[in-house]
Amino acid sequence: MIKVQDLQKVYKLTKKQMSKNNTREPIKAAVDGISFEAHEHEIFGLLGPNGAGKTTILRCISTLIKPTAGKITVQGHDVEQESDDVRKNIAFLTNELKLDVNFTPEYTMFYFGSLYGLSKEVIEQRTELLFKQFGITSFRNIKIAELSTGMKQKLSIAVSLIHDPPVIIFDEPTNGLDIITARAVTDYLTELKNKGKVVIISTHIMSVASKICDRFSILLSGKIRITGTLSQILAATASSDLEDAFFRLYSENVQEGI
Amino acid sequence: MSNLLIVIRKELKRVFDDRRLVFTTFILPAVSIALIYSIMGSMIGNMTSDIKSHVPSVYIQNAPADFQTILADDSLKERMELTTVPQGESLESVKSAIQDGTVDLLVVFPEDFSAEIEDYRSNRDVPVINTYYNTSEDYSRNARNILFEGIFKQYENMIIGERLGGSHYANAFDVDKGNTQSVIVDERKATGKGLSTLLPMLIVIFLFSGGMGIGMDTIAGEKERGTMATLLITPVKRETIAFGKIIGLGIVSIISAASSFLGVIISLPFSSVIFGSRTGSVNLGALNFGAAQYLQLSLIMLTLVGVFVGLIALTSIIAKNVKEAGTYVVPIYMLVMVSGFLNMFTTGTPTTVRYAIPVYGSVVAIKSLLEFELAWLNFGLCCLINVAATAMLIWVIKKMFNSEKIMFGI
């Protein structure tokens, strides 16, 4: 389980950033007092426009950055105190994480598998499974530099899952993928959920979210506006679908001047 | 397999799988250094022999008969092209030819030189022979300072000998005449001494430059390309990543430096003059290093590599990209070179404190080692300082890996 309590992440702005953001405030709260939980057998969706704070939350959960305030635990491990244990338990996928283009997919899987302490046999087994799942087998021995964006994205997903962790955190997982691979990814996430994994995804594609997520949080300007299942959110916002619900909350947000 | 080994193997695979990197890091240094040093050595050798074989053009005015007799000697005749300037004729055209480099030397005797010499008992001021030469021309300088210095000495001895009643009276003693065993030298120390001027500087430069390009690529490049963050998301400890990168880079740096030395060794038949050889060859075998010396040299170099790759890694981590890393690393590279240069022309026994200065202390230690004068205490101190500096750098690098501002620019 992932437990986020009163998470706050504040960035200090440089003068250049202050002028770019058109503000005189030297600090910016990217995420401000956020709490939610994501459970086993569940896909939890963080929905919001660019700059809402989705990636910041996922980075804090995955220990890449430290929260300014609040507490996060992953499978009972505190992200600040037991960051190594947290990293062992998660698969984290985001656009910023890239693979060394000088190696082949086969070696990359072996390298990361070894870093997670897996035996050669387990790595081979997991590699076969994931390569088959995401259609990587045909280019497993071609240098990553020569692969297309979609092929690289597929490989990134496979690499992140090499150690079969209990928690999967995917930031915009279908970005850059063709319709067939995007479907393969969403199907696989559902499969992982059914196997009892905790899955968190962030996305701004409402159709993807409403199709695969069990519960959602809608984020606007660093704050959670609503959390619940699809039916709870639709009822609370008197909307017919998730996109409508999002835009209702978005216009309320604009009116409140947040 | 431990994570440290995994990281090191990956770093080495990254380099050795890339033909371009293998060529630029391991093959190009050997080839280019062998070529550059051979050309430099040959040119220096050619220059020296050219000066030696050049027949200087010498103009002379008012030369007394006995001086002309000396110049007429067969051995000297061949060594210069002599032109006599008639008495009273203007010397301006000759002086301007000296300035142009077409004439090498003008020697002007006073008109009454012989009379003044003969009148030496009553004349308190000795006559002055004036010479005119061009210090910016090697041929001219050589004609004045080597050739004529000897001729003037011979002429003066001849005059003094005549005054004393016989030329042999002017020769009070000879030095080392017929003494074939005059030079007593420990050949290995002499070889070491010759190498100790340039070699310590080359060692530090080769070690640093060997790791510089790849270091910037494996750290700043990985950061720029986003592959470092992928590594940081694994459960591997930050210090293991830092250590792995430093060791991997250190191995690359040592192999690259070895390639550079191979280049130097290949060039030795032509470049020995650069390494202080007077005989025209450097006999590395004459160094005859014992196990202790090899151990000392290896440990100094190994610990120094730790400092170098630590510095390269640290600057590469602070930089946002490879280009920025380059601007940070170059000043450090220059400091390393200055440490090498500073030590080139020092004499005497260095004080212990100098061994404790990071980088510079290692240069001092390698120089002392080549001169067979490195005390175990100073050797230990130098290595200890290097190890401490490396440990400190790794500690700072680990801190940097945990810094959001450094790693993600936020």
Structure overview:
- The complex is a heterodimer of chains A (258) and B (410).
- Chain A has 258 residues and is of the alpha/beta class.
- Chain A has one domain: 3-Layer(aba) Sandwich (Rossmann fold), CATH 3.40.50.300.
- Helix content of chain A is 41%, strand content 25%.
- Chain A has ten helices and ten strands.
- Chain A is globular, with a radius of gyration of 19 Å.
- A four-stranded mixed sheet of chain B has the order 2-1-3-4, with helices on both faces.
- Chain B folds into two domains: 3-39 and 187-408, no CATH class; 51-170, D-Maltodextrin-Binding Protein, domain 2 (3-Layer(aba) Sandwich), CATH 3.40.190.
- Chain B starts with a helix and ends with a helix.
- Chain B is built from 16 helices and four strands.
- The radius of gyration of chain B is 31 Å and the shape is elongated.
- Chain A binds chain B through residues 11, 59, 62-66, 84-85, 87-88, 92, 96-103, 107, 111-112, 114-117, 159, and chain B through 1, 3, 6-7, 10, 13-14, 17-18, 222, 225-227, 229-237, 404, 407-408, 410.
